[in-house]
């Protein structure tokens, strides 16, 4: 790594990126999320929490090391755990309210550098994200919550984000068990590039559609009635709900 990260490597300068005509263009950042859990869907605060492994992929030709081995066996990749050693994009989550990186037993961060200069940047994050929720159709409501990310400082002249084509969003097999009152539809991914007074900024988003499970509403109301001793035997949903459905 010392020979790769020579004195000429400047972490403040983004990698060069050339098109087929040899013109210098923006760095393409492929992004991918592995959603580990989703919880704390809070209608009062209009927020939800998610834990995910967030991966970013880009190519930095300055880090290519294949030619350094002169006919010897080239390692498939090298791993570093100090992100300050190389240039990394200034990605931020646009609707984030709180966030933290996991650091037990060590910082959950992995940077893999391949021989052609391709960089894989992976970290485990817990996020609390804002989500505008609408309860007019409760308890048959469907909430649409987004996760948006973009570059904070670089315009589309320097950085362009796109979802990784093969698997942009991957869900933990047991994810729905962390959502006892909702079922989760397959996530949708879109581009949300926007323009402000300081320029055009690349943005990507994924949308989670959360459908409330009506049976869980009935069960929770039954338990509430019994605990408070309002009735000793209750086998249906609240009268207000029954009247609403009868209208």
UniProtKB/TrEMBL annotation:
Keyword Chaperone: no
InterPro entries on file: Neur_chan_lig-bd (IPR006202), Neur_chan_lig-bd_sf (IPR036734), Neur_channel (IPR006201), Neurotransmitter_ion_chnl_CS (IPR018000)
Annotated SUPFAM superfamilies: Nicotinic receptor ligand binding domain-like (SSF63712)
Domain Neurotransmitter-gated ion-channel ligand-binding: 4-212
Gene3D superfamilies membership: Neurotransmitter-gated ion-channel ligand-binding domain (2.70.170.10)
Main localization category: membrane
PROSITE patterns for the chain: NEUROTR_ION_CHANNEL (PS00236)
Annotated localization: Membrane
GO molecular function, one term: transmembrane signaling receptor activity
Family (UniProt): Belongs to the ligand-gated ion channel (TC 1.A.9) family.
Record protein name field: Neurotransmitter-gated ion-channel ligand binding domain protein
Species name: Ancylostoma caninum (Dog hookworm)
Taxonomic classification: Eukaryota, Metazoa, Ecdysozoa, Nematoda, Chromadorea
